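Archive entry. Fields below.
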Amino acid sequence: MILLLATLASASILIEEPATVGEEVEITVLDDLSRPIVGAPVRVAHRVGLTGERELALGLTDARGQVYWTPTQGGRTQVRARELSTTVRVHDKTPPAPTLVLLGLTALTGLVLGLLALRPPRRRARRSPK
Amino acid sequence: MPIAPPKSIPLRLVGVAVLGILPALALTPSLLAQGGLAILAACSVVAVAVGLPLVSAERSVEAVDSRLRVGAEDLGSLLLTLAIAAAAAPWVALLGWPGIAIMAVGWSAASWPSRASWIGIVVLLALGATGVVVSLGMGPVQDPGWTLLRPWWSSWASWIGLTLIGGMLLAGVGYGGPKLLPGPRWRSAAACVAVGLFFALGLSLLHATSYELDLSLQPSTLTIVAVLPLLGAAPLMIATRTELPRLHAAIGLALSLLLAGPGLEGLPFFWGALLPAGLAICLILKVLIAQGVHRFVLGLGALLSLAVIPLTAPSLPGTWAAAVLALVPGLAVWLVGTRQLLVQRHA
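PREDICTED_STRUCTURE:
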């Protein structure tokens, strides 16, 4: 298990990695003496700075400074607890289909147009004089 | 006076490559943040479904001996110059002095009197080197960041106007499309759209990877390395298009610097109002001299350009940015009007 450590002063948020959509992960909030912070509100923010940014409250940390989170959305996600924050990459179980389809379609459009442009122009057939 | 394509084969290839650069440069991380790949996909649909037919219709009037046609072509070339300056401005502002130096070199090369083929070879080599650098840089990235690229269709109102104008520019609407390859005009336009889509896809992937690293919408070093040759090559569009390269190069350089400085705040107004209005005027001039179905297609194109203004609804810029933007209609009236007088005198 790899632990991701984010520190502000010495306080930190520890997250189980790798985080995957649909699989529960453990988030631990520690103070500057590495003691668990009890009752800290923990939130996660998806699409930070982008259209569709949203923040979800996960709840308060328990006596061990822990809270559990089951990601529902893949991508870069920011975990916030009090003044602390860290980012974690949530992996999708399958690649994001709409993004891949659009990527493929746009590349295909470029490819088809390129091939059409490369095709030599038709020569007009000359009519033989009768 | 019809615009002749460059004779040099490297310059023709460069023309195809650099005409695609413009929308790629304009597709900044902050624009991608509004809709992800949906923006690029919509842009490609507009380029194919609207841009290519419009370019073909524009071609129908290029042989017409009319002052209106000369005016429309001059206005189209000026709009192209302005669009290059506006697309480059955010990058010049980000880079500072190196950006200014690159623009100075690019615009100077564009005004080179002989338009020597070595310019084309140098630019092709630079673009090739960029491709290698970007490929090497992207190599270690096993899984590119998908967060920024995720299509966000529900926010269409914030980007559909810019997508319309981007798709039309990608195909070369307004300045009559590129005339770089033999055969029908749509052939060159299709090549430019293809190259432009690949440039834009590559830069989008770089922006997305950069966002994934630190949740920042600021371009990474790799993205900046990729953009540098594109910035330098972009002004060469006018070398392959216009018969007034020196004048346009001077205008382009001046506006690149002004838009990167005091005019930076006014860029949304330029893309959302000034450029669409200019394109609409350009197409309306061509409607007046076109015949048959081409007139209908050009008229629809003009309406679509005008529709961009309420769709984007840009806010009015501050005093300094407004002063810089006020130069645009002034330049258009001066440049097109002067040429009209000369044409009238020679007639």
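CURATOR_NOTE: Chain A touches chain B at residues 47-52, 74-76, 78, 87, 89, 92, 95-96, 98-99, 102-103, 105-107, 109-111, 113-114, 116-118, 120-121 (CB under 8 Å).
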